[in-house]
Design a protein that fits this description.
By secondary structure, this protein is mainly α. The protein is 34% helix and 7% strand. The protein starts with a strand and ends in a 25-residue tail after the last helix.
């Protein structure tokens, strides 16, 4: 299994679209760790271990959702278990 996921892979895994994933990578505070090969502007990717760490920092459990109701996006997202 791959050690990285593309924007398209991440969008499919968390049930959103590519634009939303790019928005997470563009935010000022704790952006999604989206990488590109130097010199390339397309086909960004995230290293799965970094993605899992980011998800741990930026999600909450279902019963804690009300505390985060003012946040932009739903915080109840599953942790990705790729290796």
């Amino acid at each position: 299994m791959a050690n990285y996921m593309t924007v398209k892979d991440i969008a499919a895994e968390i049930g959103t679209n590519n634009t939303s994933v790019l928005g997470l990578a563009s935010r000022e505070e704790d952006p999604l760790p989206l990488r590109y090969i130097k010199g390339k502007k397309r086909t960004g990717f995230v290293i799965v271990s970094e993605l899992n760490e980011w998800i741990d920092r930026n999600t909450c459990f279902y019963n804690e959702r009300d505390k985060y109701a003012s946040e932009e996006d739903d915080c109840a997202r599953p942790k990705l278990r790729h290796s």
